[in-house]
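Changelog-adjacent note: as of this version, every example in the card shows the full chain rather than a window. The one below runs 588 residues end to end.
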Amino acid sequence: MQAAIAAHRAGRLTDAIVAYRQAIKAAPTLAEAHYNLGVALKMVGQGRAAAKALTDALQLRPSYARAHAALAGLHDASGNAAKALRHWLEAYQHLPDDPGVLTGVVSRLGATRFAEADPRLAEIVTSLLRRDDVEGQRLAGAALSLLSLDADTQAALDRCDPDLLPVSPLLLAALERTIVADRTWERLLTKARTEALQTFRDLDDPNAPFVRALAAQMLTTEYAFACSPAEADAITELDLSGSDLSSNHVRFALYAPLVHRADALAAPAEWRTFVDIHLTRPAEERDAIAAVPALTPIADGVSQAVRDQYTALPYPRWSVTRAITAQPRRVVAGAVAGPGHALPPDPSPLRVLVAGCGTGKHAVDVATRFANADVLAIDLSRTALGYAMAQAKRMGIENLRFAEADILALGTIGQTFDHIESVGVLHHMAEPLAGWRVLRGLLAENGTMRIGLYSRRGRRAIQAAQAEAANFPNDAEGLRALRRHIQALPAAHPAAPVCQELDFYTLSGVRDALAHAHEHDFTLLEIRDMLDALNLEFIGFEAITPDQAQRQGVRSTSRDPLADWDAQEQANPDLFHLMYQFWCQSRQ
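Full-length structure tokens:
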């Protein structure tokens, strides 16, 4: 067994497999030997034999969490979702704080839509939504599918009757920790908000937990729901004076952000989280704006227009992100590139630039994804950066710095970076290639990049909705009116599918997707030409594994992989959804 483990750690997998089998022959009940054999077989691509070894380990030790997780991963890879979910849940039961297990169970649950009610699953999803190391939005679809299996909930949805809606822990968690991106739910919640405005008069009201959760949902969506003139008039008449939190404050928060000193508004214990969400955190974000350092001037006209958009509506709104086990860049890039690709060694520390970080979620993900990383994240909007800085501080992220800067001026800062990420940013510049060229000049020798650019073919519904958006102002009222207009379109209208996009359910998302100040989109052949112009080599797509690429018919040894992918996208325009996300590196 010791010899097998030594060979395994040294990467001599064939020797390790032989030694594990010898250990099992000598000690058939040694569960660790069966598990390690399964892991080694999985690494050499022998999936069926790996599954047999892992199953043998579980027969010997049914609570063997890591064996459950490894077997779940095999079932995920083979497309057996039901078996994968069963084993992820078993692994999570025994190792709830393991980042790998947490990632696996959230990923599998997030991709599942349930056909039968299951109280145990409802409890698990609720507990996961409540965790501060789980990105709740990934579980929103699973939560809504479980909720809709309740007969009373479905009746409330069918009849758009909030009085029929049972208030469950899962419903409260979904409202408080996700964006409920569903048209039917939006109609129901809009009516529930109207009723709460009329009837909620006492903080001790039995319906208070639901009203608190509904107010959290409204804040998260940036008050995207339609508001009638009568409701608008009613909230302007609410008395918000006094030093105690009142039902008037709560009713107002269902329609617009509260502006008040949190430390001067006394609240009962069960309402302190409400005060924290609606008053304390926004105040922290406003205070952080003043602390944002300015790294470069912002002189370009398009940059200024984009800055103004994200100052008015910082994007995206988020609260927590997922737990990630930090890994060396070579390991992360290796999962994208596949075997046989020469990857650069990791310097210490890994100097990383996030060029265009918005409200910071992407920057936090990067700072926690790469081992031994020192991350600088820049953006045009100080308001967005204030949100980002406050969020990173709450999460205790210490290897991440923020600064106000324009990509076009970054060549003056006198720094280089081992890895640069710019996702969803370059296509909002006047000349994307010019911005990318500046970033290329900041790339250290053997540096890598992760770039995200809009797909022209994948944005057909967005393009149709943008044509509709041209008829509406891009302020809050105009964006709400645009949403109502698109929701009223017939299902066959080319813009109608945007109602299925998460961005459609927040005001900043609608502005970003449908009424942006400036944007471009691309084909993969155009991206190939830009890579050539910058002397960069394509490595692979972030969201598509080498195995998935092979199943698409694109070989890692292809001389022109982007041409191959372009052909695949022509046959399947939704292959990359809205955006290409890919890695590239300096050409040797």
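Structural remarks: The chain is about 50% helix and 10% strand.
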